[in-house]
Amino acid sequence: MFPGKRFLLVLAVFALLFAGCVQQGGVRQDMNASGPDGAGKAAEPRELVVYTYDSMASEYGIGPQIVPKFEAKCGCKVKMIAKGDAGQVLASLVLEKGNPRADVIVGIDNSLLSRAVKSGVVEKFTPRNMSIVPERLRFDKEGHFTPYDFGYFAFVYDSNKVRDLNSFDSLLRAQLERKIAVQNPRTSSPGLGLLLWTVAVYGDPGYKGFWQKFRKSVLSVTAGWDESAGMFSAGEVPVYLSYSTSPPYYAEFEGRPEFVAGEFMEGHYVQVEGMGIVKGAKNRGLAEQFIEFSLTPDFQGEVPLNQFMFPVNESVELPESFKYAFKPARQLELDPALVEEKQEEWISEWEKIMKSG
């Protein structure tokens, strides 16, 4: 080896070792020496891989709004990959356990928390700006997931076709037989939320009695929320399981204020969505920075009209169309420990009921 090239190689190795110790704003700065002559060359921007659900990554979701902002801050690239509904996102990570492609998982909520933690695919991380999140919304006390939005499950309906929905009993009307779309609790976080909502209202085993009656009203059980919403938009069903914050979308973008959410006298089950770092993430520093970014105004300000949920940063001003949304007088939620213990049993019982004649 020529002395000049040996000298350049020593410098390159030193640069690599030095770069491993340096971070700027939580983003590791990499340097390398590449090319046949060993000349220094700037590294390609690293890529943060984010697994999330379909609606977030779609052209109408929050993804296209927040990804360019984060890329400008981190000097990196972000690859957001849609994996279906949140339950399907988690299932994808479980399949990749030990050799994950993703650095961050987005969309795990309080209903899926126990399943996600027990699967062993996420690591603990508490962002430095966690104080922005109200204590009541910090659904993961062990610190695996950071909340970024919240909402309440509700049945959305076309008020030109269906009269007022104000209770679970109102879903059992003969006029609604085979008129409602819901989601599968095994593959969908809203579907699981609905099941837990009925347990919170009717207790165990009381929830089974409700579902035995309600299944007659159900036309379709879809794998995820997107499919149910598509059926509703196409006029295939006049009612579907969604959120109390869904009507602002229809008012804002479709001019359909007649699409409303029924506020139930029994109360509504809360959903808090969070994101976490994948165990074995190849870009841990970028993952941490992304999660901290999710609590900043640049991200939180995009939540209402892109996620159609409430931002966890309650100082964010809500748009005018959110007058069609509601926060229920009574918020329902089950003890996470009880959910962890009974969730599989409840889902299995639900499956038996829905498959029965």
From TrEMBL:
Molecular function per GO: thiamine binding; thiamine pyrophosphate binding
Intracellular or extracellular location(s): Periplasm
Protein name per its UniProtKB record: Thiamine ABC transporter substrate-binding protein
UniProt keyword list: Periplasm, Signal, Transport
CDD domains: PBP2_TbpA
Record's keyword annotation contains Transport: yes
Annotated GO biological process: thiamine transport
Cellular component GO terms, alphabetical: periplasmic space
Pfam families on file: SBP_bac_6 (PF13343)
Domain of life: Archaea
Top-level taxonomy: Archaea, Candidatus Iainarchaeota, Candidatus Iainarchaeia, Candidatus Iainarchaeales, Candidatus Iainarchaeaceae
Gene source species: Candidatus Iainarchaeum sp
